[in-house]
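haha ok so turns out i had the wrong file open the whole time. this is the CORRECT one, sorry everyone. sequence first:
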Amino acid sequence: MIFHIAKKEILELVRDGRLRWLGALMALLLIAAFSLGWVEQKRVGSERAEALLEERENWLEQGDKNPHGASHDGMHVFKPLSPLAFFDPGVDGYLGTSVKLESHRQNHIEHPPAADFGGLQRFGAITPAFLLQSMAPLLLILAAFAAFAGEREQGTLRQALSCGASPMALLGGKFLAVIAVVGGVLVLALLGAVALVLMQGTSTGGGTEVGRLLVLALGYALYCAGFVALTLAVSARVRAARSALVIMLGFWALTVFVAPRLMPHVVRSVVTLPSLQEFDHALRQGLSTVPDGHNTQDAYIQERVHKLLIKHNVMHPADLPFNIHGLIMQEGEERSIPIIDRHFGSLWDRIDKQTRVRLWFGLLAPSLAIESFSMSLSGTDFAHHRDFAKAAEKQRRILIQTLNDDMMNNSKFGDHGYVATREVWERVPEFQYKTPDSGWALRQSRLSFVLLLIWAGATGALAFFAVRRLQPL
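then structure:
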């Protein structure tokens, strides 16, 4: 019975010229969004890869110089684009793309692409994710709003019930029909994304990214199914199709456009963040409590030198078997690490808390849940940005320790003319960052996935109870 009803509903939907035109328009928009995203992905990815290679070459060709001077000159590393950034660029445009690695401090990741955005780009780019999150629900609403209310107005609902069709069979058939017809949009998006990922080659971990896409498809399927179920529930409870359409269009506008733009103000009032100036001031104050190795008159350094002289049974630092300046510099770096980690960790934790607070509103606005889920699986959310920042900081510590070790082991105390050569620069490993695997991303998005399950389950239950005692009048 359900499949007979679904077949009949599919024929009616296909014959509806308005839906055909809307479906074709949606398909064209998706093709355009994928194409533009792919071109931008290739352009930006190539620029960042070239910049990273050029920076590596500059580091190796910097010439002979003092190792500590080289540590202050530092190097820049660049955040690579996620292979799925063409599908959902997420918050990448508003976060930095490069960071300078230097001694004594951890720098912020700078140069967000949004700084160069025009007015239209600031409003929001047309991406596959945006189309699926905003336009796909609209298409589903237009396909399903008259499912029960329209038949009630035409008198065909009574005929269907009198012929033995149960309310549940009607619900199942109409649900399958809408999903079958409009679900082609989701399938088109999935196939397009898979094709573009495979075109990037195995160097970007194409197999892993295809796995991310399959999980993404599941999340979007739950999101879209919830809109179909809710629309059918409303259509079953109201008397006129026009009323069902107005109600669902109002819900769609609130959840897709109003809620995401209102949430930043709500979140900032619940979880505050320090300004950049306040954060840097607090960090500098924390770092000022430990010696950085430059002030040889510092009480801690004086005590440390004294203990080393006693330990090695010598009278003067020049008699030590290593250059004490290199050791003191490295010890200063190590003493600053807990302070740096505490301040940046606290900042990042507060940003994560803001994200969770915003996400909980996904119970009311499912667009917030799918937005978070989509960014996470696409590798363009704050959790992935934080992972890159940690990898860059790890590279900074390797860089500084390599240079301090060279100064300690290969120079003499008081020899300010010592210079290192390319051989030392080559000891610093090349920075290579790889996006975490899909399992890590899924763990980061547990809450958003649970919210999508709740959304689909709650709307399904609502549709069930709305249709269970369906009456033709």
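The chain has a mean pLDDT of 88.
again sry for the mixup
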